[in-house]
Amino acid sequence: xxxxxxxxxxxxxxxxxxxxxxxxxxxxxxxxxxxxxxDFKQFDQNPEAQDLLTLGIRxxxxxxxxxxxxxxxxxxxxxxxxPYTNPLVEKALSMNLPVITEVELAYQxxxxxxxxxxxxxxxxxxxxxxxxxxxxxxxxGTARLAGNIGYPASEVAEEASTADDxxxxxxxxxxxxxxxxxxxxxxxxxxxxxxxxxxGSRDEYVKAKWAIQNNMKKSDCLVxxxxxxxxxxxxKKTKAAIIPFSTKEKVAGAYLADGKIYYKEEYIMLATELxxxxxxxxxxxxxxxxxxxxxxxPTDVIRxxxxxxxxxxxxxxxxxETAGRKFYNDSKATNILATEMALSGFDHxxxxxxxxxxxxxxxxxxxxxxxxxxxxxxxxxETKDKLYQAAVEAGIxxxxxxxxxxxxxxxxxxFSEKNDTILLSPACASWDQYPNFELRGDAFIQAxxxxxxxxx
Length: 456
What we know:
Elements: E1 11-15, H1 18-30, E2 34-39, H2 47-54, E3 58-61, E4 75-78, H3 87-94, E5 99-100, H4 102-109, E6 114-118, H5 123-136, E7 143-147, H6 153-159, E8 165-169, H7 172-175, E9 185-188, H8 196-199, H9 202-210, E10 221-225, H10 229-234, E11 241-246, E12 254-257, E13 260-263, E14 266-270, H11 279-294, H12 299-308, E15 317-322, E16 325-329, H13 336-343, E17 351-355, H14 368-371, E18 376-379, H15 384-393, E19 398-401, H16 405-415, E20 421-424, H17 437-455
Helix pairs in contact: 1-6, 4-6, 5-11, 5-12, 16-17
């Protein structure tokens, strides 16, 4: 990493722990900062804070006392999940105290190029694809995944060498806390309405996403989804070189035409050769191909890598077969749009859908067109009655209400025949029954394995 000295003997407050906060605190401590960590969780229930204390880092736990700001800090490094409406954060900003997120620290110490990926949907799949493509035929160094994908960016940047690339998934929350962050290549997969409870308005959400290119120059490349008019308009407001991708028209980048994928008129592969189904995954692949081409990955390597890519856990993840039934885990589909995208990749006549979850007060009328022709649907959670009405409107004949994901798998199996597909794509958040979408997906996988055991 770069041995920067601008934090030596500076008082820095790390606000909120989790993985990124722990990494930021350790890095700043190593860089000579006088670090105070403040976390809401009580000390006796906070192993991360206990660990930092043993390193000689000051910890304040059990709340976010505003009095901390009397201590003349030079900087706050904020956990992305803590909103800017937090009283301590609001007070800090009113004092003109800089508030950054850990990805800004990562950029400041990184010795290698950074490829940043953001967007409403498809970030993790696209990030994973890019990492695989850049490592597939690599002669020196490694493409290292970082950021919102689960690996603290500052920790990865600390370990990376000049021969590496950092492939960094970035949320809107993280991007609100950047100052100098400048990726060599940036990708915006798409922009839809999301996280309005955090950002307050769609305009603020879009502004946060668009911040990924704030410091980019004409020598940097910005890969944009040309299917979206909004991104086409925004492209006029950047200094970066634009590399478009599209499933609808021929563009000066990556595109789909007559079922074939091209990059600047060079044939890459058939869309049907991609290892993951769905029109959304074609878009993800186009974005990844654009990055791979910019990094000079050979075409045959791109094709071979994407043919065997089977998806990211909980994101239209192919789990294999049980008694001739294919199982797909798309627990990450926590909204209607994500489920619509997943459904676009399957033959509805042989599809059994599992859906339901937290009731956020919305109807499912938008989902009805995507449900038409589905063989059967099994519904669970707080939204099962609302989804039942949508399924009836869509003309689905076989509908079953059940308790949870585990019981839904058994019901779906009873509806199914050999060569059918059973898909978990809930169209809802998990929090009515499961702490997160990962545990919901794990429950689906476990139930599938129990079916397998019965078959033996």
